[in-house]
Amino acid sequence: MQVIVNGQPRELPEGTTVADAVATVTAAGSGVAAAVNDEVVRRADWAATTLRDADRLEVLTAVQGG
C-alpha cells in the first residue's frame, strides 16, 4: 500500500501500524508525535492504529535549540 509519510510517498506492507512507520522515520525514543490524516494519534495507540492505503502520516520530532 502507498502512504504519504511527511509529504513523501512510501510503499508499506499491509498491516503497518503507526508505531512501525514511525520507527522507519526516526530512531528517537522520545519527543516524537504522530498524526494520521491531520488527527493526532496518542503514543499509547500507535501500536494499535493500522495505516491504510492513501493515509497521510506526519511524524514530528522535537528539537532542542534557541
From TrEMBL:
NCBIfam families: thiS. This is Sulfur carrier protein.
